[in-house]
Design brief:
With 97 residues, the chain is of the alpha/beta class. The chain has one domain (3-93): Rossmann fold, CATH 3.40.50.10580. It contains 5 helices and 4 strands, in the order βαβαβααβα.
């Protein structure tokens, strides 16, 4: 599996050790790094903080299109949390409490 991760430098350290292709980014270049990561990857992970810097239409298209599978994850500092996928699924299915 070809794993690409768009992350800040601190978060990237662990993903490098796991063998992922890491693209370091900040708010200025997050959209370009994300676009690059999607090419040739089977799975793309992007931190929630950087995902907030990607234009919403670009991010939504990527989240709904496969391949590659795209997931928004928390960064190591947990500066911004990704959406609660379980809660979103429950709401979509009509079983939210």
């Amino acid at each position: 599996m070809n794993l690409a991760v768009v992350a800040d430098e601190l978060t990237a350290v662990g993903w490098r050790l796991a063998g992922a292709r890491v693209l370091l980014a900040d708010a200025r270049n997050a959209a370009d790094a994300f676009r690059t990561a999607r090419h040739g990857a089977d799975l793309v992970l992007i931190t929630a903080e950087l995902a907030a810097s990607v234009p919403a239409p670009q991010l939504q298209d990527a989240l709904h299109a496969c391949p590659p599978l795209v997931l928004v994850i928390a960064d190591l500092r947990r500066a911004r949390e990704p959406a609660d996928i379980e809660e979103q699924t429950r709401r979509a299915l009509g079983v939210a409490v």
